[in-house]
């Protein structure tokens, strides 16, 4: 009898996932991601097509909730997401949860392979106080951290972006995203953005439409603007000499945000531009090339 029970449990435990995936495949027509080859630091558009429109739909990836938005027909759902620059190469599970109009929930999973991106290592020289901050600087850094934490929590539940992302300045960009950096030979950090060689006073524009969730002076970032594009997708503009927007303000794509400069931890005048999804930092160069679907 005990043997029979054990046998039955084995049958049941195998039966459950099989049944779930068979049911999932009836509802899910296709799941794909762009770029098709993902590496650490890649932004990513997830596209899920259904046989019939679900009432609601969301996902989970890298331990983050993935918010999707529907096409007009509601049979195709999209999410703008990404793979953090520090993610190690490997296969990661994307979990999808759809709730159908009859209340039935249908889950599916897909294995997504992340390749490793090869980033350079450079040595930089900045003022000593940015490498070994004194007590006053440490206090300011801790306060900044709380300010940023609160700002990042203010993302809109719906997408605020419209169409593709635009270059924020008319200046050449350096190939610096993901670079491992040594400051004055000591502190190692990863460069989580793209630097544009912009002379001080160059107009800095919003890469897409959204809402200003931070516009103030910070220790490392200098005069900094953060735009929320909704569903945890944000762009960040650092080291500005002047800020021309205020917190809470809605901005349209390419609206003037401020003027470039060298405030904060900067080796000279430039714009540091970063793309953030959840807590992941993504390569802007890939984002600028992505063709994005219409948002509701
Ligand atoms: Zn930078």
TrEMBL record:
- Annotated protein name in UniProt: M23 family metallopeptidase
Which top-rank group of organisms is this from?
Answer: Bacteria
UniProt keyword terms in alphabetical order: Signal
Signal sequence, start to end: 1-20
What species was this sequence derived from? Alloacidobacterium dinghuense
Where would I find the M23ase beta-sheet core domain in this sequence? 190-284
Named from the GO MF annotations, one term is: metalloendopeptidase activity
**Which Gene3D superfamilies does this chain map to?**
Glucose Permease (Domain IIA), Peptidoglycan hydrolase domains
InterPro entries the UniProt entry points to? Cell_wall_metabolism_enzyme, Dup_hybrid_motif, M23ase_b-sheet_dom
